[in-house]
Each structure stands twice: as structure tokens, then as C-alpha cells.
Amino acid sequence: MSPKRPDAATRRAQLLDAADAVFRVHGVGAPLDLIVEQAGVGRATLYRQFADRHAILQALMERSVERLQQQVERLSARDDAFLLLLQYLADRIVDSPALSDYWRTASARDPRFLPLRRQVWRAFAPSLARAQACGLVRDDLQPGDISLLSGMLGAALRGETDAERRRLVQRALDIIHRGLRPATPA
């Protein structure tokens, strides 16, 4: 597979930025013409990059996982990286509610998304192990539980405004943090 020309890669990123912005306002069912308009490109450019709506959503999710990986690398030396990554996840849920909702509601066994879920679990695993070793989170938490935690944080999507969603996600994160703490001996 030959690498994309810089022009094609730039167009792809431009289309993904536009799709993220359009989906944020109009949901993942928004007309694709809105993405074309937002990106300032022709419809043919969109379809050269993405076969359909699902391909756009898949690419957005792949980009989200790549950005998560960058956060993992940036925070790798910190004992509290796991908790900071949960905060990052919470912020992404609020910043991109339609994509987050799509991600959360896609079947856990959907072959298009299972590899991405596994990448997320693997991304969180080292910081989880470190947080457990430092006594910051309970020992029984597993990397696969990230999907459950993400679902809990996704309850913030019920807020009608950004401010309300931010308040709800912070409240959910506070409750999750308390539940993640190791039990104190009686």
C-alpha cells in the first residue's frame, strides 16, 4: 500500500474535521453535503476519501483512538495517568457527543469496531497497571472495563447544552473516581 500524497492526507484530515463539526451539531445522520460544504470541497472529493457515512465514522473513531494513543504517550511517566486518561475520555465525550454516542451504541461485537475497542483497552492497560501498583485504583479493574466506564461517562450526553454536558460528565467522573478507589481496610 503506497502512502497517501500529502494533498490527499490533508484533504482527508480536512474532511474529518468537517465531519466532526457537522456531526457535533446535527448528529451522525446529518446530510453528507453539510460535510462537503463545511470542508469547502466537492462531493467527489468526499467519496474519493470515504465510500459512505460508516467509512467516515470509522475514520473518526480511528482518529480518536490515535489521539488517545498520543495522550497515553504524553502521560506515560505519571502515576495518575489512568485517571487523567479518563478525564481525557470524558472531555472527548462532551466535545464530540454524536460520535461518542455512535461509539457507545455500536455493538460490542461489531467486527468494524472490535479492533478499535481492543486498541483502547490496550492503550489504557499500562496506566491502569501503574495506577493499581500505586494504590490509586482498585485491583479488580480490567482494561476491558474501559468500555463500561465510557458508557457511564456517556450519560452526560443527556445534557441539552455543552455546559450541562460538562457538568454531568464531571459529576459522573467524580462518582467513577470514588468507585475506582481501593477499599480501605475496616
TrEMBL record:
Pfam families: TetR_C_43 (PF21597), TetR_N (PF00440). Residues 31-50 bind DNA. Gene3D superfamilies: Tetracycline Repressor, domain 2 (1.10.357.10). GO terms for molecular function: DNA-binding transcription factor activity; transcription cis-regulatory region binding. The keyword Ribonucleoprotein does not apply. Transmembrane segments: none annotated. InterPro entries: Homeodomain-like_sf, HTH-type_TetR-like_transc_reg, HTH_TetR, Tet_transcr_reg_TetR-rel_C_sf, TetR_SbtR-like_C. Keywords: DNA-binding. The keyword Transmembrane helix does not apply. Residues 9-68 form the HTH tetR-type domain. This is TetR/AcrR family transcriptional regulator. The lineage of its organism: Bacteria, Pseudomonadati, Pseudomonadota, Betaproteobacteria, Burkholderiales.
